[in-house]
TrEMBL record:
GO cellular component, one term: nucleus
DNA-binding region extent: 86-157, 196-263
Protein name in UniProt: HMG box domain-containing protein
TM region(s), chain numbering: none
Keywords annotated in UniProt: Coiled coil, DNA-binding, Nucleus
Species annotation: Smittium simulii
Length: 263
């Protein structure tokens, strides 16, 4: 008679265990379902990103192919027109290297020309061994020829077909796209040396004025000077800043008017 309550109690405990296991199983199934959904969403995102990346790579490749095609076309057009841009060494040292290299080219008994790097290193070493008097003499020759070249360059710009110049600059822009990706220096655009330079900004005018004041209180170190000037400009009243802004505005208007003559 006392066994019946115990049996009932035991059955209730068993039922509770079964219900608990059912609940645990249900929670596990829900967790696995959520996990599967999450995995599915992640896979979709990964595929989407991969597709985007593939598209970017395709776009980049197409862009480079277009650039290469433009370069080929520009090269053919420039070759057919025969545009030869005059040039001159930018320093006495470069002038010396240029002259020495021309001597090598004109002398069949000299060392092999294809090793340009080695030849230039040897020339550079010889330049360093020259006395100051020899270097000054070379500089004087360079300055005389530089003036002659400037006159020839101005004449070239007066007679050149400006459409060919535009074509050459377009060609250089296309080359610069490739050079930029390779981390190399860009080719400069062809610009008439007599064309006006773009005026400096209002802030740059202020900085220039401070430099030219030769104030002994100005910081001597470049980094300190930059910080000092930036701080002074911030403290400057707007009315005083407007003086520099007006100067820049006038200079820019004049620049636009004059530069139109060289287009």
């Amino acid at each position: 008679m006392f066994e019946l309550p115990k049996i009932i109690e035991h059955k209730e405990v068993e039922l509770e265990k079964v219900e608990l296991k059912k609940a645990e199983l249900k929670m596990t199934k829900l967790f696995l379902a959520k996990l599967a959904n999450t995995e599915k969403r992640v896979n979709i995102k990964v595929r989407g990103l991969k597709n985007k990346l593939d598209q970017k790579q395709k776009d980049s490749l197409e862009k480079h192919q277009d650039t290469l095609e433009k370069l080929k076309l520009d090269k053919k057009l420039i070759a057919s027109t025969g545009l030869v841009v005059p040039s001159f060494p930018s320093s006495p040292y470069r002038f010396y290297i240029y002259n020495e290299y021309q001597k090598l080219k004109n002398d069949p008994s000299t060392i092999v020309l294809h090793d340009i790097g080695k030849n230039i290193l040897n020339m550079s070493a010889n330049w360093k061994l020259k006395t100051e008097a020899e270097k000054i003499e070379y500089k004087q020759k360079w300055l005389i020829l530089k003036k002659q070249f400037a006159a020839e360059l101005h004449k070239w710009w007066d007679n050149v077909d400006k459409n060919l110049v535009k074509l050459e600059n377009c060609h250089r822009k296309n080359i610069n796209i490739i050079l930029k990706d390779k981390g190399k220096h860009k080719l400069p655009m062809l610009v008439d040396p007599r064309a006006p330079k773009r005026p400096i900004t209002a802030y740059a005018m202020y900085v220039k004025g401070l430099k030219e004041s030769n104030n002994p209180k100005l910081p001597s170190r470049a980094i300190d000077f930059i910080k000092y000037v930036a701080s002074k400009w911030k403290q400057l009243p707007e009315s005083e800043k407007d003086i520099y802004r007006d100067k820049y505005s006038d200079a820019f208007k004049l620049y636009k008017e004059v530069s139109n003559k060289y287009k």
